[in-house]
Specification:
alpha+beta; 6-stranded mixed beta sheet; elongated; 13 helices; 387 residues; 3-stranded antiparallel beta sheet
């Protein structure tokens, strides 16, 4: 029996020596040909070798894992980010025994801003690449319903599901609904508001949903004074009411930092063989949301490993990466995280710029120029991960 084990281990070491120094994912199998661990690496050769050399420095979990490995398979990809995405997909599919499985036990809702001529904003649990903007995921359905209700009322965003465009407006086939008569919608279905003005309202609603209210309040105040100077008092009154409603809305948000920065704060709590990792989402100094992940059988997992996996999973599922990320302890793969998250943050801004450049109804020239400046600043700046 010992001879058989020695033969298997030698064959395993021979296979390890043949692994290329390329990015990809590796899968460990046990005697039953069941996947027991899936990992990623920028350099597969070095990473896999580390499991079979200097084993005395391994954690108890890693020692137990190595004892059960009888075969290895690798998949080579183009970059470490591709490896991260593939690793996440395969872990969800196979649920290996020795991987950290972050469970949130439900499909969290998103807020969707549709890619229509007159966009709608609503809650959905489906994330589809259809050109729409998705915010989230969110953990508290009641809170986002309340937030969305307030924002749609402030900016009078339509609730109907009608397809509205120039042709349908010209046909006059629709009539304003009750929401128009109670000042909760401006009836784009009958052309009572221009496409440009309606889409500007959607843009402002988007900013509020992102937690970006400070600059928006200043813009509304300037607009109100402009209308007042032109003696367009009805329009000035509409903007004044929005400004007041926006102030009431933001006053309810909990301020956690006087610095008014965008931050994501990660933490972890443990009890027995359970652990819970938590993300607090702070925008402009205000706590706008949180998300948690439950880890069972966590007694052999280090806090560093759990925080690392939480960071990876969270930012795989959300687009916005803030300037500052706060974590409770040092991570061994800090350089890789800074590189990946920095690129993701920049790419999202570039995609944002490309989108508004092509659809110049949704954003003004000043918006486009501002995004150009933001991208230049991002190129010269980077995110920071603080402990």
């Amino acid at each position: 029996m010992d001879n058989e084990n020695n033969v298997v281990k030698q064959e395993l070491l021979d296979k390890v020596n043949e692994i290329p120094a390329l990015p990809g994912i590796y899968q460990y199998f046990n005697e039953q040909r069941k996947i027991i661990y899936i990992g990623k690496a920028k350099n597969l050769k070095n990473r896999v070798r580390s499991y079979f050399h200097s084993t005395h420095s391994h954690s108890p979990k890693t020692k137990a894992l190595v004892e059960k490995i009888v075969d290895i398979e690798i998949i080579i990809v183009n970059s470490e980010v591709e490896a991260l995405i593939l690793e996440d997909t395969l872990i969800k599919k196979h649920k290996p025994r020795y991987n950290i499985l972050l469970r949130d036990d439900k499909t969290y809702p998103y807020i969707k801003i549709t890619n229509e001529v007159y966009p709608r904003i609503y809650i959905t649990r489906s994330f589809v690449k259809d050109g729409a903007k998705y915010l989230g995921p969110f953990t508290e359905l009641r809170a986002i319903k309340s937030m969305l209700y307030a924002v749609k009322n402030i900016f009078q965003i339509r609730c109907c599901k009608h397809q509205i465009n120039k042709e349908t407006i010209a046909k006059k086939s629709m009539r304003p609904c009750l929401n128009f008569h109670i000042s909760k919608c401006q009836a784009p279905c009958v052309g009572s508001i221009s496409r440009e003005e309606y889409n500007n309202n959607v843009k402002m609603a988007h900013q509020v949903l992102l937690g970006k209210t400070k600059n928006l309040a200043k813009q509304l105040e300037v607009k109100m004074l402009e209308y007042s100077d032109k003696m367009e008092f009805e329009k000035a009154a509409v903007v004044r009411n929005r400004l007041k409603s926006l102030g009431n809305y933001t006053a309810k948000q909990k301020i956690v930092s006087p610095e008014q920065k965008d931050r994501d704060l990660f933490g972890i709590a443990r009890t027995g063989d359970y652990a819970c990792s938590l993300v607090f989402i702070v925008r402009e100094g205000k706590l706008i949301g949180k998300r948690h992940f439950i880890i069972t059988k966590a007694e052999l997992e280090t806090s560093e490993e759990i925080i690392q996996k939480t960071l990876e999973k969270y930012y795989l599922e959300t687009d916005f990466v803030p300037r500052e990320i706060v974590i409770p302890n040092e991570l061994s793969q800090m350089d890789y995280l800074l590189d990946w998250l920095g690129k993701k943050r920049l790419e999202n801004w570039q995609n944002y710029y490309e989108n508004i450049d092509e659809n110049n109804v949704y954003y003004t020239k000043s918006d486009i120029n501002q995004v150009k400046k933001d991208i230049e600043k991002l190129n010269a700046d980077s995110i920071s991960i603080k402990i």
